[in-house]
Structure formats: structure tokens, C-alpha cells
Amino acid sequence: MDFDPSWLLIGLPVAFVLGWLASRFDIRQLKLENRQAPKAYFRGLNFLLNEQQDQAIDAFIEAVQNDPDTQELHFALGNLFRRRGEYQRAVRVHEHLLGRGDLSRVDRERAQHALAQDFLRAGLLDRAEAALQKLEGTRYENEARLALLAIYERSREWAQAADVAQKLDESDQASYSTRRAHHLCEQANERVAAGDLPGANALLTQARALAPQAPRPAIDTATLQLRNGEAAAAFDTLEGLSDTAPLALPLYAASLQKAAIAAHREGEALALLQRRYAESPSIDVLEALIALGGTPAAPEATDAPVEAPTPRDSYIAHLAHQPSLVAASRWLAGERFEHEQFHPQVQRALDQATRPLMRYRCAACGFEAHQYFWHCPGCQAWDSYPPRRVEEL
């Protein structure tokens, strides 16, 4: 069958008309979608400003459906989900962004950072750790390292925490030497628990060199020296610490007293404790003085016979410095009353009343504990506990 050229004269105009109609339809549809997307976006923004998060999320979802290539809408939607506690939906939004091949490097890093925040807020620390590690070498590097440091400290992974803190220290953003010393002390405690005393001593030596002004490395070193029977070395360690960290003396006054007795250096310890007590009275320092048989003040030189003070007299002397229910209770424990049969009941009531006063309180979050913590279990802050009891604050 021969081809008839006349069909070209008919087909070409028809094809042109159909193509023109199709293009007009596409343009009209595109304009309609573009009009719908901004309207939904601004409607969502208005809801957000009016703190109507449910309506804002619905509007942003509509905008994303109309224009799925808009990254900013995805980020806004993901942040809204995270603020509302809908972490699973936030994760899906940010993982969808990361799965796109046309995402720029800046937006990819931003999505990775947002995904890590989703996992952190959801408490999925293992997945947050993996997401944060992928931010190494990006503009979010230091922020990611700080988050990783918090994760490792919370989970007590001290070796990993020490590595991250060292990187932060080397970045010159801030000094982390004291914090790194804490990590070494924590590792040393683990070595002591495992029976590796030489390894613990090596870690404490590193900690003291890293933060010579910090009290904890010296206190932990003296504790280890006492455990090894090195009383004289423990006393020397704590005596030196009394010059570099005198305000922390209440924390190690009892250890200083034990080391002095074991090393037969009671006279030196008494003189040191009396001098520091005069500068800053404390119930813990007072207890160490009494255990050594001393008093808050050195005896005055006189020819007249003076009755030797008793430990109970030291509590009365302490009350002259500051009002203390604890000191009053300790003094009353040895007092003789007319109705002696009621003394045990009264003493038990006083002891119960003074027990909360002997706690330590975190200055950052107010968490109280009978034990002194270098790392607050409540707010995870370091060195947030003053070295004094609640009564003395």
C-alpha cells in the first residue's frame, strides 16, 4: 500500500493542537499546585504562630504532598513532630530526606543532625550514637561530640568519653582537662574494683598531671595509698592538697586523720586541721579534730593549770562559730539529764532530725544524697556539689 502524503497535511495540525492543549493543561495544573502549596504553607505558619500545632501539622502535611521536593517543609514538619514528642514520625521525615539522591551536602548534614536529635529525644541512645558519629567532619561536629560525650557519661563508658573529651579539648573551644581527669578517675575506680591496683595508680597519676588543681585525683590517690598500706605517702598527698584545694578539706578530713594516725603524724595533722578550721569551720573537719584528740583551737601557753577540754567541749566551741543542730545533737549525746530514762528516745528523735542535714546538695538541680558525688546522678553535671553538708550551706 502506497503512503499518501495528504495524511501529513491533516496529522501535523492535529498533533500541534493536541500538544498545545496538553501543555496548557500542564501549566494550569502546575500553577494550581503552586498556588495550593504556598497557601498551605502560610496557613501552617499562621497556625504555628498561634500555637495551634495540630492544625499546623495538617497544613504542612498538605503542603508537602503538593510539593514533595521542598526540603524546608520537611524540616519544619520534622521539628514540629519532635517538639510534640512524636519521635517516630519525626524520624520518618528525616530518614525520607536522607534517602533522596538530589539532596545537597548542606541539607544532608542538616537532616543527619535532625535525625540524631530525634533519637536523642526519644532516648534511643545507641541509634543516636550512630547518627552522631556520622556528623564527624561536618559543621555540626562539635555539637555532635558534646552529645556523644553526654551519652558516654550517662552510660558510664568512660574510655569512649575520655576519647571524645580529648577531641573537644584539642578543638580549643573550651578546656576539658578537669573533665578528662574525672574520666580517668572513674576508670581507675573500675580497675580497683577489678583488683588491678597498679593500673588504677597509673590512671590516677595521669589524672593528677592533667588537672593538678582538681581535688579528686589527689583524694582518690590517697585512698588507694591507704589501701596499699602507704600511710605516709597518703598523708603527704593530702597535706599538699590542703594548699591547692583548701575548700575541699571537709571531703578528705577523715582520710587525712586516718593517714596521720597510721603514719604517727598526729601533731602535723592537728596543726593543719586547726589552721584550716579557723579559716573555715566545718563539722567534718571538727570530727577529724576530735578523732585526733584535739580541739578547734590550739591550747594557749599558760603556767596556770587548765582542765583538758573534752570532745564535747569541741562541739560547744563549734556552736560559737555557727549554729548547728548536728553539733548540738552530738553534744547532747554525752550529756546527763535529770530524767535519764527518756534520753534514748530524745536522742533518736534528734538523730533522725539531723540526718537530712548531713546530706550533700547539687547546686545545679538540688538533688540531695548522703554520699558525695563528683558527677550528679540527677542532672549529670560535674563538680556541682559543694563540699559542705546541707546544714552548712
What does this structure look like?
This protein is an all-alpha fold and 393 residues long. Among the domains are: 69-165, Tetratricopeptide repeat domain (Serine Threonine Protein Phosphatase 5, Tetratricopeptide repeat, Alpha Horseshoe); 232-296 and 309-354, no CATH class; 358-393. The chain has 18 helices and two strands. It has helices at residues 6-49, 53-66, 71-83, 87-98, 105-122, 125-133, 141-154, 158-170, 177-193, 197-210, 215-227, 231-244, 249-263, 266-279, 283-291, 311-321, 325-332, 343-354, and strands at residues 360-361, 368-369. The protein has a two-stranded antiparallel sheet with strand order 1-2. Helix 1 runs antiparallel to helix 2, helix 3 (71-83) runs parallel beside helix 5 (105-122) and helix 14 (266-279) runs antiparallel to helix 15. The termini are far apart.
Number of helices: 18
CA(first)-CA(last) distance: 109 Å
Strand content: under 5%
The biggest beta sheet reads: 2 strands, antiparallel
Q: What is the residue-mean pLDDT, rounded to a whole number?
A: 81
The best one-word shape is elongated
Strand order of the largest sheet: 1-2
Q: In terms of per-residue confidence, which ranges show pLDDT below 50 for 5 or more consecutive residues? A: 30-37, 301-306
> From N to C, what is the helix and strand string?
HHHHHHHHHHHHHHHHHHEE
Query: Rg, please?
Result: 35 Å
Total strands: the figure is: 2
Kindly name the structural category.
mainly alpha
The helical percent reads 55-70%
Features of the shown structure:
393 residues; Serine Threonine Protein Phosphatase 5, Tetratricopeptide repeat; two-stranded antiparallel ribbon; 18 helices; 1% strand; TPR repeat
